[in-house]
Design goal:
The complex is a heterodimer of chains A (about 110) and B (about 110). Chain A is mainly beta and about 110 residues long. Chain A has strands at about 5, 10-15, 20-25, 30-40, 40-50, 55, 65-70, 75-80, 85-95, 105, 110. In chain A, the strands form 2 sheets. In chain A, strands 2, 4, 5, 6, 9, 10 and 11 form a 7-stranded mixed beta sheet that branches. A 4-stranded antiparallel beta sheet of chain A has the order 1-3-8-7, with no helix packed on it. The radius of gyration of chain A is 13 Å and the shape is globular. By secondary structure, chain B is mainly beta. In chain B, strands 2, 4, 5, 9, 10 and 11 form a 6-stranded mixed beta sheet that branches. A 5-stranded antiparallel beta sheet of chain B has the order 1-3-8-7-6, with no helix packed on it. Chain B starts with a strand and ends with a strand. The chains are: A mainly beta (about 110), B mainly beta (about 110). The interface of A and B includes residues 42, 48, 96, 98 and 104 of A.
């Protein structure tokens, strides 16, 4: 199994609070991704990173920010959580950009009340 | 908008039968495709990768790619109840961003 750890695995919080999810990898892969998965929408890319301090937006980036200060860590922050951000969040990693598959972490189940 | 399309199912097959899962894509420049299996409440797990036209076999799984028809499929032989899951098809777009485009997934039910 790819060495990917997401934390926390579960979180319940209130609307308006900041939330940070962490993805940690031990594979030294260059590419890292944050997805959310909701019924009826499948997997949707939030942000991704192609190197330390190099990030870009995905299709549903509004309300989210990311940071990558080290190869192994990719943080996803909800600056002011809203109920519409209740979802399951997956981190994925990839050795290279084109042609390589992505491998997923176990996910974080986030509930915003 | 580059897309990957899958029938959401559910696809129901009896135990021991061949399950056939299909996927079409719109980006003619796509070069690599992947099948993921996702059990309920779990994360997607890579089960097959395919890069060139034709068939690729791995145990009970066969992935098929037809770039001219923009069509990818996954065959599961001797289907088992443990194969019951959602299967996600994904492809790299033609741009070199590393982003995967995922289909909505097909739910497979294998009945004993």
């Amino acid at each position: 199994d790819a060495g990917i750890t997401q934390s926390p695995r579960h979180k319940v919080t209130e609307t308006g609070t900041p939330v940070t999810l962490r993805c940690h990898q031990t594979e030294n892969h260059r590419y890292m991704y944050w997805y959310r998965q909701d019924p009826g929408h499948g997997l949707r890319l939030i942000h991704y990173s192609y190197g330390v301090k190099d990030t870009d937006k995905g299709e549903v980036s509004d309300g989210y920010s990311v940071s990558r200060s080290k190869t192994e860590d990719f943080l996803l922050t909800l600056e002011s959580a809203t109920s519409s951000q209740t979802s399951v969040y997956f981190c994925a990693i990839s050795e290279s950009g084109q042609l390589a598959p992505q491998h997923f972490g176990d996910g974080t189940r986030l509930s915003i009340l | 908008q580059k897309e990957v399309e899958q029938n959401s199912g559910p696809l129901s097959v009896p135990e021991g039968a061949i399950a056939s899962l299909n996927c079409t894509y719109s980006d003619r420049g796509s070069q690599s495709f992947f099948w993921y299996r996702q059990y309920s409440g779990k994360s997607p797990e890579l089960i097959m990768s395919i890069y060139s036209n034709g068939d690729k076999e791995d145990g009970r799984f066969t992935a098929q790619l037809n770039k001219a028809s923009q069509y990818v499929s996954l065959l599961i032989r001797d289907s088992q109840p443990s194969d019951s899951a959602t299967y996600l098809c994904a492809g790299h777009g033609s741009s070199n961003t590393g982003k995967l485009i995922f289909g909505q997934g097909t739910t497979l039910q294998v009945k004993p």
